[in-house]
Amino acid sequence: MVTLFAALLYLSAFSQNNLQDEFIIDEYCGNVYDIHSGDIDGDGIKDLLTMHFSYIQSYKGIGNNQFGVPLKLIDIGYSSTTKIFLNDFDADGHLDILCQVGNDLRLYPNDGNGNFSDFSIVLSMSDCVFYLEDIYGDGDIDVIAEKLEYFWGWEYYEYDLYFYENNGDGSLAGPQLILSSNEYTSSHLNFNDADGDGDMDFTIVVYNFQYWQQEYHLAINTGRSFDIYSLDDFPGYNNGTAIPVDFNGDGDIDVLAHDSEGNTIVIENDGNSNFNGSYVISDQFYKNIQVFDVDNDEDCDIIYCSGDTCYWAVNDGYGNFDASIIILEDVIQTYPLNPDDDFDLDLFGNYRNKTVCFENKANLPPFTFDFDLCDNDSIYFAEEWIHTGGIYYDSLLSINGQDSIIVYNITSLSSPPEFAISGATEVMLNSIETYSVPENVEVGYTWQVEYGNIISHPSDNSITVQWSNSNIVGSIQVVSEFIETNGCSHKTSIIVTVGDNAVNEINNSNISVYPNPCDEWVFIKTDKALTCTIYNLQMKQLIQTEESGINISHLTNGVYLISLQDKTNKTVYQGKLVKRSW
Q1: What is the mean pLDDT of residues 218-229?
Q2: pLDDT tens digits, residue range 476-489?
Q3: How far is CA 453 from CA 72, 450, 493, in A?
Q4: Are 310 and 331 contacting, i.e. CB atoms less than 8 angstroms apart?
Q5: 298: left (phi over 0), alpha (psi -120 to 50) or beta
Q6: Confidence label for 8 from pLDDT (cuts 50, 70 and 90)
Q7: What is the per-residue burial (b if ≥16 Cβ within 10 Å, else e) of 508-528?
Q8: Taking 60 as the threshold, does the pLDDT of residue 154 lie above it?
Q9: Which residue has the higher pLDDT, 402 or 24?
Q10: What angle (nearest 5°) sits at the alpha carbon of residue 545, between those of residues 542 and 546?
């Protein structure tokens, strides 16, 4: 019941729009071409940066997606790009700004307080577009340069794609040629860690002037190089795009793209990097696509625009998108960011000359805990004791009103078989006795004796004990543990009366008192209402209760008498209870 309820609660996010709370960042900002967030002034709160036609603007972060007044940060003059990048490029601990101006990739260093000095040129290349991403997942932002030259008179194009790796200090190694052709006239790249391995894969979208069609290539990152796959069976649509994705969670990189008819499709990877099949997500031409997990259900959704309205296409976990929810209207581009560091990505956008944020109210991501559970043990979760392996769910409400799913992934392990200790349980003062347990070559035995001394080990599964010279109740505890497998154990014990310490015992097969010996708690298992009384050996009453769980942590170590009476005050059980802090 717990598992089913939590699973239904977890899936309920599909039925609601999580992106409803709108915050206006700037009402009169004009057109915005790019938005980034990061702590540029070192106060621990992320700020907001926006790219405009000829300058970069900042908004000081206050917290909770609230920002201060706009401040013109950098005047870059005319720029051939509308993209900025925010990264600690020179590895000095401060976020720098990089952007392309003309043929140059500029670096504006940050002094740590959000002040940016005069730029230096990182890379210069004619007829080129620069892309900046942390390609290998090492924390350093790398550069991919896309160079396209046209040779007039020869009606000839030369397309080259180069990779420059950041050495970790802002210097670049390379170039490494990724792709070269004399058939491509235009191109753009899309990056995504589709397979979740920590490095960036990307698609190369080109226009082939020889065949007058859009074509797609997929670059799968192998860790130090790229495997390039041409998706020749799937010619694209004019102005179409392609993005590496894994919508169905099978670990294979597929491609979200537009086909030649303008449909939005997924080109499927068969698991061996063969791309022979596809399926249609929508007959609409999705524009300005963003791919990320909107609702924290561990699959990728799609944010896209159609006309001047942006939508959220909800992934059902299997790569199907049956529902699209309107997010906002009169906008053509969105930017997923997380300036409030709250486990989900919020959406920022620019419309009607305003910069706005739509707060994501997705449930928190599930918190998964892995446990190994021996089959003679139990764990308390979701208000019940769990004794067997499996996946268990619970739902908790966080302090900000979001649901958080707790997942216990429990693996059941075999324990050693139960066993008994053989030997005398009533002995004379100073007597020497031998005790044994069954021989088992798969387990090791650990012996612990109270009020007696182990004087020899006749075998691996036996001991010889000399008991005390005082009237007292001793005990022997033995723990068996697997030697070479999972470490599970089984524990058993016996009580030994030394000298004259007898108790008139009354046993009852319908009543169980456990554990005995015990430490802080003793429990009574019975199907009847009973009164429990605990005495010391001088018959002084110490505890009387009708509870089935009795806290005896305040008692000193020793032997006690436990007596159980029914409603008629008849004693139905009586025996020794050994209190011992192990």
Answers
A1: 90
A2: 889 999 887 777 89
A3: 83, 8, 16
A4: yes
A5: left
A6: very low
A7: eeebebeebbbeeebebebee
A8: no
A9: 24
A10: 160
Assess contact for 170 and 133: CB atoms under 8 A.
no
Paired sense of beta strands 226-230 and 213-221, if any: antiparallel
Amino acid at 472: I
CB 277 within 8 A of CB 266: no
For the residues of 84-112, what is the DSSP string, one character each? EEEE-TTSSSS-EEEEEETTEEEEE-B-S
- C-alpha atoms less than 13 angstroms from C-alpha of 107 in its C-beta half-sphere: 24
146 token code pair: 């896309």
Least confident of 342-346, 510-514, 553-557: 342-346
Phi then psi dihedrals of residue 7, to 5 deg: -65, -40
8 Å CB contact between 451 and 557: no
Among candidate residues 361, 388, 364, 353, the one with its CA nearest the CA of residue 374: 388
pLDDT at 361: 66
Contact 335, 346 (CB under 8 A): no
Cα gap 524→295, rounded to integer Å: 47
Residue whose token pair is 């944020």: 357
How high does pLDDT run on average in the chain? 84
Helix (H, G, I), strand (E, B) or coil at 158: strand
Helix (H) or strand (E) holding 534: strand 531-535
Place of tokens 């005047």: 75
Rg of the Cα atoms in the chain: 36
pTM over cut 0.70: no
Where do the H-state alpha helices sit in 38-187?
none
Residue with tokens 């008498």: 561
Rounded distance, CA 439 to CA 460, Å?
Answer: 8
pLDDT tens for each residue of 10-47: 333 333 555 656 677 887 777 888 899 999 999 999 99
**Both tokens assigned to 260:** 């030649």
Q: Over the range 351-389, which residues count as b (16 or more CB within 10 Å of their CB) and which as e?
A: beebbbbbbbbbbbebeeeeeebbebeeeebbeeebeee
Length of the chain: 582
Q: How far is CA 519 from CA 184, 436, 452, 516, in A?
A: 78, 25, 20, 9
pLDDT over 50 (residue 343) = yes
